[in-house]
């Protein structure tokens, strides 16, 4: 069970990262739409697990490699946006959220 503080920090990080990916994706991830689906923050607020949905899903591995290389810069941009609200900017860990692909696969199976 997450605390109220964890939920607030998660929502804040999700909102700000969504904006960062929206603006940065135009230059870095041409042709890909990246959305932040879930953010889970540890109890001590030091680590944030961020789940990303990438559309179209072809080439996810290359995009995730690029995102992991850019993690320090993304954390810096996040720090600039939420620095007044958070004392410590959490370490960011990015993961692919493939739940939409899973749902689409189940939908296709049920149609046949």
Architecture blueprint of SSEs:
Layout: H1 4-28, E1 33-41, E2 47-55, H2 60-69, H3 71-82, E3 91-96, H4 99-111
Helix pairs in contact: 1-3
Helix-strand sequence:
HEEHHEH
Structural class: alpha+beta
Provide the CATH superfamily.
Answer: K homology (KH) domain
| Rg on CA atoms, Å | 15 Å
- Second rung of CATH, namely the architecture: 2-Layer Sandwich
What number of structural domains do the residues give?
Answer: 1
Question: So how many helices?
Answer: 4
* Overall average residue pLDDT: 89
Order of strands, main sheet, comes to: 1-2-3
Query: What is the helical fraction, as a range of percent?
Result: 40-55%
Oligomer: single chain
Distance between the termini: 39 Å
Q: What is the overall shape?
A: globular
Q: What does this molecule look like?
A:
- The protein is an alpha+beta fold.
- The chain has a single domain, classed as K homology (KH) domain (GMP Synthetase, Chain A, domain 3).
- The chain is 54% helix and 21% strand.
- The chain has four helices and three strands, in the order αββααβα.
- Strands 1-2-3 form a three-stranded mixed sheet.
- Helix 1 packs across helix 3.
- It is globular, with a radius of gyration of 15 Å.
């Amino acid at each position: 069970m997450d605390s109220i503080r964890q939920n607030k920090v998660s929502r804040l990080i999700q909102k700000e990262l969504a904006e960062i990916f929206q603006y940065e994706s135009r230059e870095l991830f041409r042709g890909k739409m990246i959305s932040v689906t879930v953010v889970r923050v540890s109890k001590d607020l030091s680590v944030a697990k961020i789940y990303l949905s990438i559309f179209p899903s072809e080439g996810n591995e290359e995009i995730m490699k690029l995102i992991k290389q850019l993690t320090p810069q993304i954390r810096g941009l996040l720090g600039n946006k939420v620095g007044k609200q958070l004392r410590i900017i959490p370490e960011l860990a990015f993961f692919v959220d493939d739940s939409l692909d899973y749902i689409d696969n189940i939908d296709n199976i049920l149609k046949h």
